[in-house]
Write a structure and sequence with these properties.
alpha/beta, 6 helices, 6-stranded mixed beta sheet, 6-stranded antiparallel beta sheet
């Protein structure tokens, strides 16, 4: 039996709000599950976990009560891991820090009007979650291995690998930035650097300015089976992966940085990510706009735990451990 379109996660004290959201979702044509649907004799935690995993989108109602609820945090974490988290603020509150970088709809002033622009945008977001889930179920073709997706063109063999990533708000292409990117690629090719164009997310609604990213492949010389990586994600796939070798990675807006982010919010030499006792540590190099780990600006060398989120300018990366077979 197919799962629900929407699973609602909420605090017990917010039950009236959960009921109201459920009724409004049904009016929008969604199939909704929340724990009011539990039947006598059913095991509470098992049913909730089953319905949450089967749902196409998980709506978490953040409020001053739910942010302190272990159940809501656990449900939100599981939904986030499965790339189906659709959080919404129903009362002003400080969200758990791990979710601060997750796009969250603010409906704290929503009166229940189904024509309200904020509500309409949220409904559109939910349709995207559901359509993506249906598309994934229909697609029986396995994804191409990461190594194949990022293989350098054979026409330009080299010992350095460069990548260009462009993100466009609302799918609009700035001709000047395209021309600049083309010129930079041509310069890189003339120096013997292989250029790999990585696809961008044309449906990205974040208000990012176009950013070009260049990196070398020195980190692939790292010994051992597990590799420390910084990964940029688009929906549920890795868009770009930087391996952090023993020499570390300097990130900045210009060479000689190892990872160059052509972004006005990034300083020329912005920060250093390096290995210390087989862990990653980030040091901000007196950048103007700062480096952020899990939403907090770092003021001193800070350990970057596995799963931590690093934000530099408009670029967000996650620390992950990968085996060579996964690259």
């Amino acid at each position: 039996m197919p799962g629900p379109d929407i699973f609602i996660s909420y605090s017990r004290e917010d039950r009236p709000a959960a009921r109201h959201f459920s009724e409004c979702f049904v009016k929008e044509g969604f199939k909704v599950w929340w724990d009011a649907a539990l039947h006598s004799g059913e095991t509470f935690d098992e049913v909730i976990e089953t319905e949450l995993k089967a749902a196409k989108a998980v709506v978490v109602l953040w409020s001053p009560r739910s942010v302190t609820s272990r159940w809501v945090r656990a449900e939100a974490t599981l939904a986030d891991r499965r790339k189906k988290l659709a959080p919404v603020i129903i009362e002003p509150c400080d969200r758990p820090i791990i979710f601060e970088l997750t796009h969250t709809t603010d409906l704290s002033c929503w009166t229940g009007d189904l024509a309200d622009p904020g509500w309409r945008n949220f409904v559109q977001d939910l349709h995207r979650f559901i359509d993506r889930s249906k598309g994934a179920q229909a697609d029986s073709q396995p994804a191409a291995p990461a190594a194949a997706r990022y293989a350098a063109p054979q026409a330009a063999p080299t010992d350095r690998r460069f990548a260009t990533v462009q993100r466009f708000a609302d799918g609009k292409v700035d001709n000047l930035m395209v021309a600049l990117s083309t010129l930079q690629n041509a310069i890189g090719a003339s120096r013997g650097n292989a250029v790999l164009n990585v696809s961008h997310d044309e449906d990205d609604d974040d208000d990012y300015e176009p950013t070009q990213i260049y990196t070398n492949s020195d980190g692939f010389e790292q010994p051992g089976d597990e590799l420390h990586c910084l990964e940029m994600m688009i929906e549920d796939r890795v868009d770009k992966r930087f391996v952090v070798g023993k020499l570390g990675l300097k990130i900045g807006r210009n060479a000689p940085a190892d990872v160059v982010l052509v972004d006005a919010r990034v300083s020329r030499i912005h920060c250093l990510v390096e290995q210390v006792d087989d862990q990653l540590r980030i040091t901000d190099l007196s950048s103007t706009n700062g480096s952020f780990v899990n939403g907090e600006r770092v003021s001193a060398p800070t350990m970057l735990e596995v799963g931590s989120i690093l934000r530099i300018g408009n670029t967000v990366m996650t620390h992950a451990l990968r085996t060579r077979a996964e690259l």
